[in-house]
Amino acid sequence: MDKHLDHIGIAVRDLQGSITFYTTVLGGTLLDQYRSEAPGVESEIAVIDIQGERFELLAPTNNTTSPIARFIKQKGKGVHHVAYRVRDLDEAIAELNQLGIRVLPETRRINKHGRRLIYLNPADTEGSIIEYCDYREESGS
């Protein structure tokens, strides 16, 4: 199945300062900013476009339960995940299963933009956090 880079997720402590850096220094455009308190997300998210490339700045909203807070505590700020767009998320998951690559079922969700997503198990990706996603209107789901 074809995969294309969708976005890079960046864990940050100071969302407004990071937005300023990405828009002023890197010349990006803030496309959206929203808060998700869904279990397993608990983050404020800013979507930045830099010349057609997307970045999601992720700041924890709950320092106890947010996976972004845990990530920052363990590894510090910086690249959190790389997301790949697939044509159909369900088919991509089936392909991963055939290859012996596990996903983290509890991470499966649909975000506010209609993006269906799931994270692969980092134990099967050499420790990298990888997201697979599709967009419902494109996948025909």
Automatic annotation (TrEMBL):
Protein name (record): Glyoxalase
PROSITE patterns, sorted: VOC
Q: Its domain of life?
A: Bacteria
Q: Which residues form a coiled coil?
A: none
Q: Which family does it belong to?
A: Belongs to the methylmalonyl-CoA epimerase family.
User: PANTHER family from the entry?
Assistant: METHYLMALONYL-COA EPIMERASE, METHYLMALONYL-COA EPIMERASE, MITOCHONDRIAL
Keywords attached to this Swiss-Prot or TrEMBL record, sorted alphabetically, are: Metal-binding
Q: Which GO terms describe its molecular function?
A: metal ion binding; methylmalonyl-CoA epimerase activity
In the UniProt record, does the keyword Metal-binding occur? yes
- Source species taxonomy: Bacteria, Bacillati, Bacillota, Bacilli, Bacillales
Residue ranges occupied by any VOC domain in the UniProt entry: 4-135
Gene Ontology BP terms: L-methylmalonyl-CoA metabolic process
The reply on keyword Secreted is: no
CDD domains named among the record's database cross-references: MMCE
